[in-house]
Write a structure and sequence with these properties.
Structural class of chain B: alpha/beta
Shape of chain B: globular
Largest sheet of chain B: 8 strands, mixed
InterPro entries (chain B): Aldolase_TIM, Di-Nase_FeMo-co_biosynth, DiNase_FeMo-co_biosyn_sf, MoaA_NifB_PqqE_Fe-S-bd_CS, Nase_CF_NifB, NifB_C, rSAM, rSAM_sf
Helix content of chain B: 25-40%
CATH class of the largest domain in chain B: Alpha Beta
CATH topology of chain A: Alpha-Beta Plaits
Shape of chain A: globular
Number of strands of chain A: 4
Cofactor (chain B): [4Fe-4S] cluster
CATH architecture of the largest domain in chain B: Alpha-Beta Barrel
Number of domains of chain B: 2
Strand order of the largest sheet of chain B: 10-9-8-5-4-3-1-11
Strand content of chain A: 15-25%
Number of strands of chain B: 18
Pfam families (chain B): Nitro_FeMo-Co (PF02579), Radical_SAM (PF04055)
Strand order of the largest sheet of chain A: 1-4
Structural class of chain A: alpha+beta
Radius of gyration of chain B: 23 Å
Largest interface: A-B, 16 and 16 residues
Distance between the termini of chain B: 25 Å
Number of helices of chain A: 2
Oligomer: heterodimer
CATH architecture of chain A: 2-Layer Sandwich
CATH superfamily of the largest domain in chain B: Aldolase class I
Protein name (chain B): FeMo cofactor biosynthesis protein NifB
Strand content of chain B: 15-25%
Distance between the termini of chain A: 18 Å
CATH class of chain A: Alpha Beta
Pathway (chain B): Cofactor biosynthesis; Fe-Mo cofactor biosynthesis
CATH topology of the largest domain in chain B: TIM Barrel
Largest sheet of chain A: 2 strands, antiparallel
Order of helices and strands of chain A: EHEEHE
Chain lengths: 74, 519
């Protein structure tokens, strides 16, 4: 799985963009989106997903269940 | 800049730039000799007993000098959208052009757009002397964008003072960079020094890749704020501390905050009323947390004043505000408009204009001193407040019905002292006076004995008198302080002669709603 941003709640503050260790977040159409191919749920980097921790609107960066759970290499 | 060749009438009166500069040089320190009792309050009248190097830093900074804010303008560029803490009085989603709160902007800019905007504004408004980055998030949570903006502006407009306003969480990490970019003024918002109090204001902070909550979050924040403040003052960078007064949460505690920041070298303390309304969608707005009344705010500011200089002219402006404090010209400088504007950065023209402003200031202070001298023998315990309608330059030059705010002065035999301002809705729009709006104005200045205006219509005049507030229009287009002292002298005379009985006024309301931008 990967994280996704619920666009209708995104304030477009860009805080998540700088914190993502995978550079998976970018601006698109006025709000920010996570590239699911790059998202590792921060596994291997941090204890908590950074986009979730820094986002000013609760429940805006959420797990996207349409993707399989990320498997850390090795 | 056409104004620089003023229509002074006879050609002989045309002032050359050199002559103006010479006069300014002679008036170094602004020629203002202290002022009323509190001469140490260098942020108010003139240089007072401020060291020259500090006076040079604040004398044309509207946010650091009460006196300067009548004459000089500032602008904020909204290049810093990200934030690293959550405050219960802030809701970043709310974004409306008519809303004036620090966390709110209409348009975010890249550093390049911001630099362009600064040039466009500085070319149009020669008294614009200060560029601040205040958000809409936290400048130091966006360090790359913030410092890139400073770099670009210091290259193209070297005479503009740079400042930034931060919550302080990331401050210790950036102090050296701040010093390197010659950022002269840093404002830190410090609402508490006790983490138990902080836990009621901050739900969380994000630091070192982790979200902290509760008392732990507040402890981390206060430690880093105070350390950052110490590091800045050690390097000789001027620091202002902003505090939001939240009745029942941190109101009395702010006296302790005042002591803590003073002992760490803060130059100025700005206690601001909480802005809180349900429609803002903030936690405090939704829980019904009220803001202070005008009297509560003034009492707290007065309590802290013995300790250090207090700022009372803050307008809690938006992170993209442009113009004199109390006016907002940001709508004239949208990205679309600045891209079309012809930008001609005329450093000499700006300096000549500002030299004339300095002359105005000297004249204003001289007039006040002269009037004050006539009050020298007077003995009275009477202290009262008056409201003033002004468009700037220290003059009573605004029509009652057009005033978007009133400035409030406290009068006593010690003189006239600026103690605050009251925002009001436009009472008169397109010539129609509206009864409800008049009531709003009366509520906002209900603690004042008189209101000084350039002009006022018959109906509001009668209503003001009915409410016990004397409308005064005889000093139209004259200096505020000189006129207020002259009026006060007359007032004392009438009381002494038994013509009127002095009685105290009630409290006044601080307006919480949106600032309506004049069409």
């Amino acid at each position: 799985m990967a994280y996704k941003i619920i666009a209708s709640q995104c304030t477009s503050c860009s805080a998540c963009e700088a914190e993502c260790p995978n550079v998976a977040i970018s601006e698109k159409g006025g709000t920010f989106v996570i590239n699911p191919k790059k998202c590792t749920e921060c596994i291997g980097y941090f204890d908590v997903p950074q986009c979730v921790a820094v986002c000013p609107v609760d429940n805006t960066c959420v797990i996207d269940t349409t993707y399989p759970r990320y498997q850390a290499a090795g | 800049m056409h104004a620089s060749t003023t229509q002074d009438g006879a050609a002989g009166r045309l002032v050359t730039i050199d002559a103006v500069m010479q006069q300014v040089a002679e008036h170094k320190g602004c020629g203002t000799q202290g002022g009323s009792g509190k001469a140490s309050c260098g942020s108010a009248a003139g240089q007072g007993d401020l060291p020259t190097e500090i006076w040079e830093k604040v004398k044309n900074h509207p946010c650091y000098s009460e006196e300067a804010h009548h004459h000089y303008a500032r602008m904020h560029v909204a290049v810093a959208p990200a934030c690293n803490i959550q405050c219960n009085y802030c809701n970043r989603k709310y974004d409306c052009a008519n809303e004036s709160r620090p966390g709110v902007v209409s348009e975010r800019l890249t550093p390049e757009q911001a630099a362009r905007k600064v040039l466009a504004v500085a070319s149009t408004i020669p008294q614009m002397t200060v560029l601040g980055i205040a958000g809409p998030g936290d400048p130091l949570a966006n360090p790359a964008k913030t410092f890139k903006t400073f770099e670009l502006i210091s290259q193209t407009a070297p005479d503009i003072k740079l400042c930034l306003s931060t919550n302080g969480l990331a401050l210790p990490d950036h102090v050296d960079t701040i010093a390197r970019y010659n950022v002269d003024h840093v404002t830190i918002t410090i609402n508490m020094v006790d983490p138990e109090v902080g836990a009621k204001i901050y739900p969380w902070v994000y630091w070192n890749h982790k979200r902290y909550t509760g008392v732990e979050a507040a402890r981390l924040l206060t430690e880093r704020q105070l350390r950052g403040l110490e590091m800045l003052t050690e390097r000789g960078i001027l620091c202002k501390v902003n505090s939001v007064m939240i009745p029942g949460v941190n109101d009395r505690h702010l006296v302790e905050v005042n002591r803590a920041v003073k002992s760490r070298g803060a130059f100025l303390h700005n206690i601001m009323p909480l802005i809180s309304a349900p429609e803002h969608g903030t936690v405090f707005g939704l829980t019904g947390q009220r803001g202070p009344t005008a009297q509560e705010l003034k009492a707290l500011q007065d309590d802290c004043e013995g300790e250090m200089n207090m700022m009372r002219h803050c307008r809690q402006c938006r992170a993209d505000a442009v113009g004199l404090l109390g006016e907002d010209r940001s709508a004239e400088f949208t990205t679309e408009k600045i891209m079309e504007m012809e930008v001609d950065y005329d450093l000499e023209g700006r300096q000549a204009y500002q030299a004339r402003v300095e002359e105005e200031r000297v004249a204003k202070v001289a007039a006040k001193q002269e009037e004050l001298a006539t009050l020298a023998g007077a003995r009275s315990d009477i202290t009262l407040l008056v409201a003033v309608a002004t468009k700037g330059s220290g003059l009573i030059n605004e029509h009652f019905g057009h005033a978007k705010e009133f400035q409030v002065y406290e009068l006593s035999t010690a003189g006239a002292k600026f103690v605050g301002h009251r925002r009001v809705d436009l009472y008169c729009q397109g010539g129609f006076g509206d009864e409800d709006s008049l009531q709003t104005v009366i509520r906002a200045i209900n603690d004042c004995h008189a209101v000084f205006v350039a002009k006022i219509g018959g109906c509001p005049k009668a209503d003001l008198l009915g409410a016990g507030i004397e409308p005064v229009d005889q000093y139209a287009h004259e200096f505020i302080e000189k006129s207020a002292i002259a009026w006060f002298k007359g007032y004392l005379g009438k009381v002494a002669a038994g013509e009127l009985v002095h009685s105290p006024r009630g409290d006044a309301a601080i307006r919480q709603g949106a600032l309506i931008v004049a069409a």
